Fold this protein.
Amino acid sequence: MRWWLPDAGSTFAGPIDGLFTAILIITGIALVLVEVGLVTFAIRYRGRPGRKAFYTHGSTRAEVIWTAIPAVTMVALGLISNHYWVLIKDKKSVPPNAYRLGVHAKQFEWQVTYPGADGKLGTSDDFTVRNQLHVIVNQPTAVELTSEDAIHSFFVPEWRLKQDAVPGMHITAWFQATKTGEFELGCAELCGMGHYRMRARVFVQTPDEYKAWVAQQAAGGTE
Amino acid sequence: MTTVAHAQPHAHGDAQHAPMSFWRKYIFSTDHKIIGIQFLFVSLFFLLIGGLLAMQIRWQLGFPGKPLPGGGILPESMVQNGVILPEYYIQLVTMHGTFMVFFAIMPLLVGVYANFLIPLKIGTHDMAFPRINMWSFWLALLAGMIMLSGFFVPDGAPRAGWTMYAPLSARPDLSGATISQKLWSISIVVLGLSSVMGSVNYITTIINHRAPGMTWFRMPLSVWSLFITAILAVLALPVLQGAAILLLFDQTLGTHFFDPGAGGQALLWQHLFWFFGHPEVYILILPAMGMASDIIANGSRKPIFGYHSMVFAIIGIAFLGWIVWGHHMFMSGMNPTLGSTFMVSTLLIAVPSAVKVFNWMGTMWRGNLRFHVPMLNAIGFVSMFTIGGLSGIFMAATPVDIPLHDTQFIVAHLHYVLFGGSLFALFAAIPYWYPKMFGRMMSERIGKLHFFLTFIFYNMTFFPMHIIGMGGQMRRIYDPTIYDFLKPQQPLNVFISYSAFALFAVQFLFAFNFLWSLKFGKKAPMNPWEDNGLEWSLPNPAPHGNWAPNTPNVYRGPYEFSAPEAGDKDYLPQYVKLPTDRDPVPAPLPATH
């Protein structure tokens, strides 16, 4: 049984999980305050004969306090969140040395185009593999997302990465995997009856492993 | 603020409200109360349908691959050897959402209570346009029937999710459904008409037909929230209608508004849908907040804490509600800079929501609480809405939204708002105004049992969804067990399913209580909850025409519980004239037409 976010697998996990925990603490405090308050009031002020409620229409001071505190908290949270949001999603944040892969989503598969030996997409040694995503550990990677038909969404939970693939749009999503091993790529946007089985295997490899795999593919082998 | 209320002219024809045939009285009725009751029965029926669909979803998620009990009665196109097929599964999720949002919660809150409460609470005889009001109901029913008929056409119900994202929804070759996708669009256009007709009525009635002395700031918060909701609906629904018409063109005439292959824009649908869809979220919660406010003040025997800030919070939520739609699209490929602005507006909407929660608590503070069934459910509403509101902050913070977007976490969040919020408020409102509708009380005993069991099973069902969502379980997937990273949390899915079945089962207590009390409930006194609203000055059930040919005078605000001048009673109705009160001056009569 897992009770938390999946184990971290990319550089995004640190700030995102940290922010998640911070929000959990803030909302946790608010939640306890409200729920304990409700239960306390329900017990303490339960109706008893001969008692009369305290007649008041409110308090401006209280209103100001409980408007200002959430407002300040929310603005602060917005500023901090935006800092990381820009780092992760802004177009200008894609590292210039990112290794580029093409990912074309289609009912119900992921077609991954690799740049081949020259490391460049759009050249003749590119090759495409269905439902297998191989990436190099600790190497910034950018996936060029496109879609053939419906809207799909590229989702690798361990990387804290999700990005829709929209027909007619060309969207770049980048990440840097930090953990080698095998993971799964799922589709997070309803794309038809096979949505649930639109799954690819993800292999995070050392540069040598990756090179070997590319060579094997170039030789016409299948994994 | 001076008194601007209008006395009721209504001098013509139907002021006497003579007895009518059964058909005129109960079927083609123009009486706002009967129309409210018609909406009540119809939307409770759709609530049941939505619940039945939910049970099948939970069966599939808890026990993928196992034959659905009773699935034998479903046709081969939906189940194979009793096992739900993937194409049927996406019909289930699509129609569960569609029915619950458009045909259960929205009409329960707005169709039922805007109709029933507005004229009663502002002290008038009926809606401004009673016939349009009747049409509003019949069109809503027609829309529901069109939607329901989707299950009976050859390729089954719509399959693109209740949000109908294009191009999946626009292209039958992608969704696999031809006829029903069009039926969805048609049904939504009809429903939009119904909603606009209703809203125009509510707005006009509140502006023009308030009883003498019923100033804006003497209106109960239920009326305030229904007023603001009607404004949202009249502005939002036409956007959805327009989008649905474009979608229908794509589906039938071969246009390509949403099909990028031929020059359209896939994201256009999302922008249009959520420009409607987010105000819609507040259409689904504001009336619940308003009615819960009335009931909490009554149950606490105290004036609502911070009445004015409650009104401004409603207006603030409604205003901000127009500029947050992009938070549904953080992962859509929309420019990330736009995401930043939508994040800020979304986080800010937490402020008026928090203000409301604190004011409800302030109302209970130092009260003399009466735990009748409506009060219990209203407290349940506050505590559950709080969870739903707080869980929203996770998704509002864009970086955290990345792992949570389109997972079960959002399913948990929206059910905390729509079930924990809206539906709990309805479980408060239905028994509360039941005596004025039917002249009898619902059973308090069954009601309390229903509340406690629902509260427990509800949390057992929806709270764990946060956790499986954190684990990454995507929405609308037919079988989570095919993913290695989801397998470890499957026991929790099983637990959720059992809880959901129990939650569904205990709703029959409510259904039984509701139906049984129609005939066998205790006869209700005129003012069973010792409340201050104008509606309680009427006999049970409230007669056609309400106070016609008279109108009540209003002497004070709606929440004067435990006021010193009330003497030995702990409430002081709006219509009671104390020796120190002066009669309100009725506004000049509008010209008769």
User: Anything to note?
Assistant: Chain A has three helices and ten strands. Chain A has a mean pLDDT of 95. The longest strand of chain A covers residues 99-106.
